[in-house]
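hey can u check if this looks right to u? its 305 residues, i copy pasted from the old doc so theres a chance i mangled smth
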Amino acid sequence: MRQVGRYRMRRVLGSGAFATVWLAEDPALEAHVAIKVLAENWANNADVRERFLAEARLLRRVDDPRLVRVFDVGVSDDDEARPYFVMEYIPGGTLDDRISSLSTREALAYGVAAAEAVQVLHDAGVVHRDVKPSNLLIDDRSTPPRLLISDLGSAKVLAESSGFTVTTGTPIYMAPEQIHQTDGFDGRADVYAVAAVTYHLLNGQPAFQDHTAAAVRDRRTDSRPPPLAARLGQPAALDRLLTRSLSWNPAKRPATAADFARELERFLTGDPHRPGREVPTVPTLVFCVVLAAVLFAVTYLWLSR
């Protein structure tokens, strides 16, 4: 493919079962853009075509700086007549490209940014269903770099409209309920995925080595990710947050992506050794009560002299 509309195709940025994303030039604006083109073998499926363009309309409707902007839609004027949509080109690559070089602080910041971006989708009534580092773009033209979601998990929607029976998502980031339920899961599945991404960013390795849907299905329901906070110089509260967020049971996770973002952000904004305010343990409370009683008694006796 050399050209669609006025756009001159340069090279492939990524491809999947239903679409290919190209780097292209817009000669009218003298700028680079990214163009997502429906795969040729689905071009004649009316339902798939409509669902494909629905992603562009949604990105345009939400119009948030944490989502990639859409500029144009169209249909190629060759014999294939494939629908496409034109997006802003983000030159910084994906978060997947940076995992091995991130500091702990950068990993935490990107985890917060990913959760906030996912919350934007949830507020628009969309569950992403495939949050992963390769779907998170980094715009390094700003300081600090800006994170954007580049894909709305459209492969699942397209597969459904094509008549395929598929399991959603990428196994190492996939919430277990996406394996056991073909539908009916909610935004907490995305909370799990964001937590799995955050763990991978912090650790350099995924929380669970489940590279197939079958491995996710067979994992023990009481499985916990290996602790990493102590090695990173972080408090144990970080391990507790990630363990809750990666729980097999959605009810144990933070209720929303925004809640996860707020909890994770404590590790960026608070004392590095004790982010946020933790609930005191019972022995600590007993000690405080006894100490207060002793101080009160001493003060009372002194004043009674």
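Residues 3-88 form a domain with the Phosphorylase Kinase; domain 1 fold (CATH 3.30.200.20).
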